[in-house]
Each structure stands twice: as C-alpha cells, then as structure tokens.
C-alpha cells in the first residue's frame, strides 16, 4: 500500500473515533450502517492518498484500520470482511489470492469517461496512443487519470471499447497496448 503525499492529512469521519466501530456489530441494522460507513471511509481514504491497490495486511496496521487515539484497530478478519463488502457492492475487486483489493474510488467506467473527455478536448479522436501515453505521457500530466494504475486503466479502456469509443489492440496486458479512440 503506497501512500502518496497529498499535502494535507486525511480527515477521518466521526464514527472513526467511536471505539465500537472497530468491532463488527451483531445487530443486522447496525452492522449494515457500519458496513456502509467503513466502505465510504475506505474509498475516501484511498482517493485522498491515491491508493489503488490496498494490501489487507498492510492496511490492517495502517491508520486506516488502526486509530491510536482511541487505542482501537480492526482485526484482520474484520478488515477482510469490510473489504469483502466493498467488493460485493462493486466498489472494489479482489486480486487472485484475496490479499489485495483494487479500490474503485472511481469505477472503471468513470475513469473511461475522464479519459474519453480528455481525448475529445485535445482532438485525439481517430488517433492511436499507447496505454503508457495515456497513463504517464507528457500530454496527460495534470489530468486526474495521470499515473492511473495499469489494471484500472485497462478496465477503463475495456469499458470504452464496449461502448464503441475505443479499440484496444495487442495481446499483452501492459503499457505497450495500443488504443485507437473512435
């Protein structure tokens, strides 16, 4: 879990200072609210620090799941549970081993929309670019999708392909894939 310096500290929501929040609640209605609160916190935290892949073990030891001010932390089991709930609502995706989650603080379709809006604004329709140029190129510096995680970029481009706005070509899932914007 690589945290990028965003210039200011993250502001945790009020429930984060309430010790019972760090224990999975047994009453279904309370647990549902707790699931929503933790899901929103995980997404907001990851967005603030531009974290795309959240490693469960690292996150369990990080400030995200460990509030030293109230001497409470989520257990590894509960961290997995809340991440699993985030996956079930479509805001994250497990890796093969369920050790890391790809967090969708923006869903792939939203990233695709941002990429396509940029393509249109700079007149790149009908041109071919590499995934590298989209993610890390000079032209995209300063765009929200600059330095977007590769897997998420590929998912965003696949969504654009399904909607008929792009054609992705190549066989290896890498920065070397070509993309023609339609």
UniProtKB/TrEMBL annotation:
Keywords: Cytoplasm, Protein transport, Transport. Its main location: cytoplasm. It comes from the Eukaryota. GO terms for biological process: macroautophagy; protein transport to vacuole involved in ubiquitin-dependent protein catabolic process via the multivesicular body sorting pathway. InterPro entries: ESCRT-II_cplx_Vps25-sub (IPR008570), ESCRT-II_cplx_Vps25-sub_N (IPR014041), WH-like_DNA-bd_sf (IPR036388), WH_DNA-bd_sf (IPR036390). One of its GO terms (molecular function) is structural molecule activity. The keyword Transmembrane helix does not apply. GO terms for cellular component: ESCRT II complex. This is Vacuolar protein-sorting-associated protein 25. It comes from Rhodosorus marinus.
